[in-house]
Specification:
alpha/beta; nine-stranded mixed beta sheet; 191 residues
Amino acid sequence: MYKKVNDILKNDGVIAFVTDTVWGLGCLPNSEKAVKKIYNIKHRESQKPLILMSYDIYPLFDYVNQPIEKEAQKLIKKYFPGALTLVLDKSENTPDFMTSNLPTVGIRVPDNKTFSDICKNIDGHVLATTSANISGEPPALTYEEAIKYIGDKVDLVIEDNGFKAQGRASTVAGFKDGNAVIYRQGEIEIV
């Protein structure tokens, strides 16, 4: 199956997959054609950036400026993998077309075995992602909903293999003057 997933992604394809929170859409971060496809599928506003996800924090380090500030390192140690998206300054490896030309990028490591297995087996180990739904509609929470909402618009919907989405969005946090700032309160309460 992973050969098929890699072939789709290398050919500017878009896949749908389960995470620990909701179902997601993803493509390779450097595929402008596939990123545009995701925006079209979702009818997403162009000023809303995609985020980067992987099975582990290390592949994501290439996409953010180093060194990562201390407060961010603490949150990574405490909450990754999990339902937390951190917004950090991006490196030159992160394309402007997937971050809506913003100087930052959101990164996340979902706590879901099926998602982890996908990322471990794709080239680069990182996906540019967003939730699997039409903008303004509820995100898909099951394989059946993913098929119903966007199944005819993506190149592949990958079964969850029994590792279900929990249904609550990730918390999104950034940093100002060394302190965490919550942009969206979700599953994780930062304490």
